[in-house]
Design a protein that fits this description.
Blueprint lengths: L1 H23 L2 H8 L1 H35 L5 H10 L9 H19 L2 H14 L2 H23 L4 E4 L2 E4 L3 H17 L11 H4 L1 H8 L16 H6 L4 H5 L2 H10 L7 H11 L9 H4 L8 E6 L7 H17 L6 E6 L8 H15 L1
Parallel strand pairs: 3-4
Antiparallel strand pairs: 1-2
C-alpha cells in the first residue's frame, strides 16, 4: 500500500536525521575540551575501529544465512567466491557509522583550520534559539533545500557504493544539515537557547506533543518502539537503548566526566534531550492520549531495546485508557514470541490489515 510506504519512508528519513542530530550535539564541547587530535583519536577508537571490524568480519557472516537459503551451491567456498566477485564490500547498517565518522572528521578539520565558521553558526543559533518556531521553520527550510533537489535527481532510494562505503545519494546534505545544526547548538551551549531546561520549547512541550497525537492522525501502529524508559533505567536495562545512539552517549559521558556510559549518563542525556521523557512523557503516559482511535502495538518478546516488562507497563496503561473510552476493540497488542528488535513478516502483514480495516 503506497500510504504505508510513504509513512515508512518518512519515519526512516526523520529518525535518521534525529540520530545525526543527537550525534552532533556534543561534538563541539568535546572538541573544546579535548582538542582536535585527542578528539580524533577517541572518535577513531570508538567509531572507526568497531565500524571497520564489523564491516570486515561481521558482514560476511551476517549475509551468509540469506545466501545459504537461496543459492544453488550453499557452500562456504562458493559463498566467499561470490562475495569477492561483488563490485563493492557490503557494509550493512555500518553505513551510518561511516558517515558519522566522516562528519566528525569534517567538524574536527573545520575546528582546526577554520575556527571562525563555528562562530557564524552559533550566531545563527543564538538568533533563532529563543524562538522554537523560528528555529523549526528555518531548519525545515534548509532541510528541504538540502534534500528535495537530490531526491528529485537521484530518487529517494538510490544508493551508491564505493568499496566498503555506502551512500544514499539523496541524503548526504540532509544529514550534514542536522549534524551541524546540532553542532551549532552544542557550541552555543545546550543549556542555552531552544533546548535549555527552562526554555520556551520545554515550557510548551505539551503543545508540541499534542501535535504529535493530533486528531487528524486517525490510526497508529507503533512498531518495536513501545517501552518505558524509566523502567529501563530503574531496572538496569538501559544498555541496548543507549547503544542505538552510542556516539551521543559516549560524548555525554565525556561531558559528565564519567569513564563510560552509565545509568547516570543515560538519565542526564535523556532528560536533556526530551525533558520529561522519564515520567510524564514516557510511553505509559503518552499512549493514553490515543485512546478512542485505532492503535496497534507491535513489539518483540526478546527486544533488548524495548524490554518487555517495561513495555507491559505501557500496554496496561493503554488498555485502561481504551477501556475507559469504551472502545477496547480499537486497541490491539501483538508481541512476537522469541523475537528481538525485529519486525516479523506476520507483524508487517498485520499492520497493513489494521490500516485497511480502520482507514476504509
Amino acid at each position: 500500500w503506497f500510504g504505508f510506504d510513504l509513512f515508512a519512508a518518512w519515519q526512516d528519513v526523520s529518525l535518521m536525521d534525529l540520530m545525526f542530530f543527537l550525534s552532533g550535539l556534543f561534538v563541539s564541547p568535546s572538541l573544546a575540551r579535548n582538542g582536535t587530535w585527542k578528539f580524533l583519536s577517541k572518535r577513531l577508537l570508538r567509531i572507526g575501529i568497531p565500524c571497520a571490524l564489523a564491516i570486515v568480519f561481521l558482514m560476511p557472516l551476517a549475509y551468509y544465512p540469506a545466501y545459504r537459503a537461496t543459492a544453488a551451491d550453499p557452500g562456504v567456498n562458493a559463498y566467499w567466491q561470490h562475495w569477492l566477485s561483488l563490485p563493492f564490500w557490503p557494509d550493512g547498517p555500518q553505513w551510518f557509522l561511516c558517515q558519522l565518522l566522516a562528519l566528525n572528521l569534517l567538524a574536527a578539520a573545520l575546528h582546526r583550520f577554520a575556527p571562525g565558521w563555528s562562530e557564524r553558526l552559533v550566531r545563527l543559533v543564538a538568533f533563532a534559539g529563543g524562538n522554537p518556531v523560528r528555529f523549526f521553520v528555518a531548519l525545515v527550510a534548509v532541510s528541504a533545500l538540502a534534500y528535495v533537489p537530490l531526491a528529485l535527481a537521484y530518487s529517494p532510494f538510490t544508493w551508491a557504493n564505493v568499496g566498503p562505503i555506502s551512500l544514499q545519494l539523496s541524503r548526504p546534505l540532509h544529514y550534514i544539515t542536522y549534524f551541524f545544526a546540532a553542532f551549532a547548538i552544542g557550541s552555543h551551549g545546550i543549556d542555552r537557547g531552544a533546548l535549555r531546561a527552562d526554555g520556551p520549547l520545554a515550557r510548551h512541550w505539551l503543545a508540541w506533543l499534542a501535535a504529535a497525537v493530533d486528531e487528524r492522525v486517525a490510526v497508529a501502529v507503533p512498531v518495536i518502539g513501545v517501552q518505558s524508559y524509566r523502567w529501563s533505567l530503574d531496572n538496569n536495562h538501559w544498555q541496548a537503548r543507549a547503544n542505538t545512539i552510542k556516539a551521543a552517549h559516549d560524548a555525554a559521558a565525556e561531558d559528565l566526566g564519567e569513564a563510560k556510559v552509565s545509568q547516570k549518563v543515560c538519565r542526564e542525556l535523556w532528560n536533556k534531550v526530551i525533558p520529561g521523557m522519564l515520567d510524564r512523557f514516557d510511553c505509559p503516559s503518552m499512549l493514553r492520549l490515543f485512546a478512542g482511535r485505532p492503535l496497534l502495538i507491535l513489539n518483540g518478546e526478546k527486544d533488548p531495546n524495548c524490554p518487555i516488562d517495561g513495555a507491559k507497563l505501557a500496554f496496561k496503561e493503554a488498555e485502561n485508557a481504551f477501556a475507559a473510552a469504551k472502545c477496547p476493540e480499537k486497541l490491539k497488542i501483538t508481541v512476537a514470541e522469541g523475537i528481538g528488535h525485529f519486525v516479523t513478516k506476520e507483524q508487517s502483514a498485520e499492520a497493513l490489515k489494521w490500516f485497511e480495516k480502520w482507514l476504509k
